[in-house]
Amino acid sequence: MEDGELERHLRDKWQADKPQNEFANLPAEDQEIARKILGWAEFERLKKRKDQNQRFRPRKEKPPNVVVEYYEVQSGFNDNRDSLMLIWGGWTIDVRVDGVIRQSVQRLSAERCRDLITKISRMNVQVRPIVTEWMRQKAVEEAAAKNRNPPSRRKAILDQLKGFRG
Questions:
Q1: pLDDT, tens only, 41-65
Q2: Mean pLDDT over residues 112-137, rounded?
Q3: How many whole angstroms separate alpha carbon 142 and alpha carbon 108?
């Protein structure tokens, strides 16, 4: 055997003895199944790995970020171009998982909403009130109504008898 031939033979033997990447040798159908199970990024990372002796570190799954938001909705009519639509008021609770609303409970009374929020907050879930523009306006109006003097009884009777002439 010549030196070049011997070197080629030893290189081929070394490549055969070297542990191969199992993911690269999978049939196409099995690769598709592995991609669905592992996810695209993890599958590609394992496929590009040179040899099987590298330490296998699966990606750590992060717990989902769950936030519960609640707010009050004003009842009334939504003036749409095509039709008039009634909007039911009340309190709404939205459950957001990783920023996406997964569940929503609508048309709750204030007491029922308060009960649900206290139960949820006891489960160590982040609860966040959302203050809408309508809620700000309502708070300002309620504060102004508290500061106003209540109408006197005499004035209320005179207002009732306003149109009466004897």
A1: 777 777 776 555 556 566 677 888 9
A2: 93
A3: 21
Q: What interhelical angle do 40-48 and 28-38 show, nearest 10?
A: 120
DSSP assignment of 111-156:
HHHHHHHHHHHHTT-EEEE---HHHHHHHHHHHHHHHSPPPPHHHH
pLDDT tens digits, 107-124? 999 999 999 999 999 999
DSSP state for residue 5 in the 8-state scheme: H
Please provide the DSSP assignment of 92-110 as one string: EEEEEETTEEEEEEEEE-H
- The amino acid at residue 63 is P
Q: Residue 45 class from Cβ within 10 Å (0-12 exposed, 13-18 middle, 19+ buried)?
A: middle
SS3 70: strand
pTM of the entire predicted model: 0.52
Residue written as token pair 């609770």: 93
Token readout for 116 is 């649900």
β partners of residue 71: 92
Structure tokens at 39: 């996810």
Max Cα distance, the chain (Å): 136
Q: Is there a contact between 88 and 148 (Cβ–Cβ < 8 Å)?
A: no
Phi, psi of 22 (to 5 degrees): -70, -30
